[in-house]
Structure formats: C-alpha cells, structure tokens
Amino acid sequence: MAMYGQPDLREVIFALEGDGMASQKLRDFLESINGKFDFTTEDMRRMVQSFHLEMGNGLSGRKSSLKMLPAFVDRATGKEKGHFVALDLGGTNFRVIQVELDGRGHARVNHTGKFVIPNAVMRGTGTQLFNFIAQSIEKFILRYEIELEKKSKLGFTFSFPIDQKNIVSGILINWTKGFTATGVIGANVVKLLEEAIRKYGLENIQVAALANDTVGALAAKSYEDPDCDVGIIFGTGTNACYREKTANILKLKNPVSGHMIVNTEWGNYSKIKSNEYDDKLDRATNNPGRQRMEKMISGMYLGEVARLVLSDMIRSKFIFAGCKARFSKGNFKTRHMALVESDKSKDLIKIEGYLEGLGILDTTHEDRALLKGVCRTISRRAARISAAAISSVVTWMDPKLRAKHTVAIDGTLYEKYPNFRRTIVAALRELHGDAAKRTKLTQVKDGSGIGVAVVAAVASRGKSRSV
C-alpha cells in the first residue's frame, strides 16, 4: 500500500466488499485501474530527476522534450507605469483588455472585451485568424471609445509553443489546443498580427511584447510580490515558466549577465509512465506522441481519460448495468468530473441528477460511487504529476528549498476542480516535508491579461533581453 494513503478506487472496493456487493471480476478490474493510475512518492521523485535532465538538455540546446524557450524578459520591479492594451490568445476564447499600471505594484483593468473564435477560423488560414483578431481589437476600441495614444503599447499573450529571438518576435513551433490554422507554423506571429492590425487602420498600436500565459502569470504576480519566480497554467492546457540565470541558458548566442524568464513548455514532457488509456487517448488526438504530460493533467483531456475507463466498465457491465448508458467520445468533460467529485452527499444525489440529465435513469448507489471513484483516481494522479512538475522547477532553482518561492498559478482546473490544489500541496509536503512551506502556491486572476501588460511595460523600460 502506498504511504500517502489509499487511492479512492481502493476505498470503493473496500466499501463494496463490506457490503458483500463486489464480484471478484469487478474487484480485479478496479484494482487494475487503481494500479494504472497510481502515482507514488517514488514515481514523483523519479520524475523530478528525469525532469531536471530534460531541463538541462533543453537549456543547452540538446534534444529534450522540454523546449526551455527564453522569453527575453525578466520579472517586474513593481515600478512599471502607464496604460497598455493586452491581447490574450490561448484557446477558443480570447480577450482584449486595457490595463493601467500605477507604478506602485497595483494594476487595474479598465475595459475587457471577450470574443469567441469560430471553429472555421481556428482551422482555416492564418490570414483569416489574424484578421479576425485585428477586427476584434477594432471592435473593442470602438465599443469603449478608447482614445489611442500616438504609440499605444500592446502586450500579446500567445499561449502556444514559440521560438523567440527577442521580446517582439516569435516563430510558432506547433499548434496545440485544437488549432490548425495554416500558414502560421514557422511564421512570426507578431508580424502576422501587425499586418492584420495595419489592415484595419490601427497603426497607432505597437506590439511591445510577446509572451505566453505562464510568463504573464509570473509577471502579474511579480509586479506585487518580489518572491514570485514561477508561473503556471492549469487549465485547458498546462505549462510553466520560471526565472533563470542567463548564464545557464547555454543555447543563447550572446548571453548577458542577469536573469531571464524561461518558458519550459512542460506539457510536452514525455519521460513519464503511461497506461493503455493514456496511449489510446494520445492516438486519437491531432498531435499523437506530443504533449504527453498535458494529456494526463489538463482540462482538455482529463474527462476523455475518465470516459475511456468508464466505457470499458460499461461494456463489462461493471457500472450502469441496469440502465441504458453510453458515453461517446467528447461528451464527458473535465467539468463533469468536477461536478461528480463535488458531490459530498451521503446518497450522491448531485451525481444522480447529473446522470438523469443524460438519460441514465435508475442508477444504484454503487454506480454513483464507482463513477466518483474513477474520477477521483484520475484527477488525483493529475494533481500528483503536477506536484512533481512544480517540485522539479523549484528545486532546479533552489535544490535545498532555502529561499521563499511564490508560484503564480492561473487556470480553471486549479481554480475550480475540487481538491486539486489540496492534493498538490499534500504531495509537495510528501516530497519536501516542512521545507515545502517555503513554496507558496498563489492563484493569479487574469495573469494572461494583466501579466502581458506588465511584460510590455518591463520591455518598454528596456529590461528585456535579446539574442
């Protein structure tokens, strides 16, 4: 038995055995699932060691599943000041916001515009995509009657893997999160945006900084907290950045003294044990073999991992045997897992209501308990892998955890999924004991919006770095 306590499916097994309800085949199946999704303390320690090797390889320019991309900007000082436009593109929804920085560590959002990118645009051409973005910026400016300065600075959050040569250029390495717009991979996304902006008569807008959402999260928190040196996204996708000594970024051609934020692109970390459900999901995606860690811990994929397990259980009549139930691809989302796990009632009434809404009637308490157990087992693994990844980044900077580290975290999975944060904190304590207290996990609201405005301000003050 693992030292950190019984995984939830094992608890379900014990309960069923106590009631004399579990068949041997069901017990064997649940034990098998439990083992496949168990991520022990030793698994976490091995992952940290492997992660460090991949980080070193990536910083040196050697082959690695971690791209370790320089962001060409350091964290904020808290003294940055001015009005900035921020564009946040990280998924099917994107935002345009106007941010005011007061120079004393406080940021205020004056206006926000939210836009939904149609599927046809996500999967069309790059020209269509960036024209849609520029048109949305124009609508935002007109809607709020924003008077543009002669040179209005814009921070561009672009939450996809990019190869940056400086703070205002970035080459898209590959699309993630369902985007397939043609003509963008291998192109400078800032140039594409600037061309579209000019097309819509917005010449006064100048792109001052390009960053991803993790860099934005770090920047937003560091504007008020000088201990912040890690930024993480746990949402539809997942990624992390941290503050690195430029001397350690060996692949930089002209390194200078000081520090620079490095974007790890940790969703692509691949030196991690998987099972047949992970592999089946991976094969069905539009990027098989890539983003392996992301597919185990992010909101875009967790629901589908659970659905694959549930489908096996339904076929074997281990669950919902007395009622019609069918979970087809894509119809069991991570938000449904969160709803299931949030049910603390004795009879699991909330779960029963959710299932009835799907037309799955007359479920037993055993059915509902099994469903919750599957969800908790999969989400627990996700949180423990996440903890190992956090530990990897922090201990890379500070092996003995002697200093304070604030980890800025944005994303709906971290914010809304029941017990996700608590499980991460518990796992960090397993790894580091009392020293884990010096790593403070802090939720950052709107890091990808306010944060990229801060990045633009830092870059405008000349604190950016280039090759």
What can you tell me about this protein's structure?
- The chain has 467 residues and is of the alpha/beta class.
- 42% of the residues lie in helices and 18% in strands.
- It has 16 helices and 13 strands.
- The protein has helices at residues 8-19, 24-37, 41-60, 119-122, 126-143, 189-199, 213-222, 276-284, 294-297, 302-315, 334-341, 349-357, 365-397, 412-416, 420-432, 447-460; strands at residues 69-70, 81-89, 93-102, 107-116, 152-158, 162-166, 169-172, 205-211, 228-234, 238-245, 259-263, 405-410, 439-443.
- The strands form three sheets. It has a six-stranded mixed β-sheet with strand order 1-11-10-9-12-13, sandwiched between helices. Strands 4-3-2-5-8 form a five-stranded mixed β-sheet.
- The chain is globular, with a radius of gyration of 23 Å.
- The model is unreliable at 1-6 and 463-467 (pLDDT under 50).
